[in-house]
Amino acid sequence: MLNMNTGVIIMLDRKLLKMLNEQLNREIYSGYLYWSMASWFDANNLKGFAHWMKKQAEEEIDHAKKFYEYINDRREKVEMLPVEAPKSSWSSPLEVFEDTFAHEQKVTEMINSLVDAAREANDHATFEFLQWFVKEQVEEEANAEEIVQKLRFAGDSPSVILMLDQALGSRED
Question: Of 38, 60, 131, 158, whose Cβ has the fewest other Cβ atoms within 10 Å?
Fold first, then answer.
């Protein structure tokens, strides 16, 4: 951003830039985690659950792209950080979705921290950019929690699990 009074390019606050790069990494990790969950479902012949997780992974990578483009648009350098290996084994579909819900809650905390940092830096553009993610996280948590509740209701009923598998296989977005 150009300061019209001085002609100097205004860079992102260093702390905020570091946090944005870390969030980009966490979004990539989220995609990686959901692919790991999809792999577990595929290995357990629950193709609908796997399909849902693959769609979720794609969505998370799209989120990472948004951070990448925003950092570039602000004329800053994207830092590609190492991506940690995700968990790869669960005992049940319920455990997978409990982990999904907990993960989305953690992502919400990270987004909220970014919003707070943007406010502290008085960075209106970054604050506005992050509002999309604030709204998105409400949806992400609600979707994961809804499936957790259905799986808790299903208990050990194979027929209900298979019905949920079929329903989740129809996810389009």
Answer: 158
Q: Is 63 annotated as a binding residue?
A: yes
Query: What count of residues does the chain have?
Result: 173
pLDDT tens string 69-108:
999 999 999 999 999 999 999 999 999 999 999 999 999 9
Q: What is the mean pLDDT of residues 115-126?
A: 97
Banded model confidence at residue 156, pLDDT cuts 50, 70, 90: confident
Domains and CATH numbers, the chain: 14-168 (1.20.1260.10)
Tokens of 91: 């005992």
Residue 27 annotated as binding site: yes
pLDDT band at residue 10 using 50, 70 and 90 as cut-offs: low
Cα–Cα distance measured from residue 49 to residue 163, given in angstroms and rounded to the nearest whole number: 11
What is the token pair recorded at 96?
A: 């997978």
CA dist 24 → 63, 137, 161 (Å): 8, 15, 34
Contact (Cβ atoms closer than 8 angstroms) between residue 130 and residue 112: no
pLDDT at 119 exceeding the cut of 50: yes
Please indicate if the annotation marks 84 as binding a ligand: no
Tokens for 108, please give them. 């919400």
